[in-house]
Design a protein that fits this description.
single chain, mainly beta, about 40% strand, globular
Length: about 80
């Protein structure tokens, strides 16, 4: 799908609890970006790119989902 998907987990150690869901998103989306503080090594998943945050970054305190597609843009914060 022509979808860019962005998700903020605060910390990478919280990501594995959603692993199966994001493996599927990595398969169907153009790209999935996961944001978090690198307190654990995230798993390598095709289609997923990790964006490391510094613990003092504002986004490191937030949970969010953003979907950017040609006919839809939405956010949960």
């Amino acid at each position: 799908l022509p979808v860019e998907f962005y998700a903020g987990f605060q910390r990478f150690s919280r990501f594995p609890h959603q692993l199966r869901r994001y493996e599927r998103l990595g398969d169907v989306c153009r790209r999935v970006y996961i944001f978090g503080v690198a307190d654990a090594a995230p798993p390598r998943i095709p289609g997923i790119e990790y964006v490391e945050l510094h613990p003092d970054d504002d986004l490191a305190r937030e949970w969010f989902l953003l979907v950017d597609a040609p006919e839809l843009w939405t956010a949960l914060t």
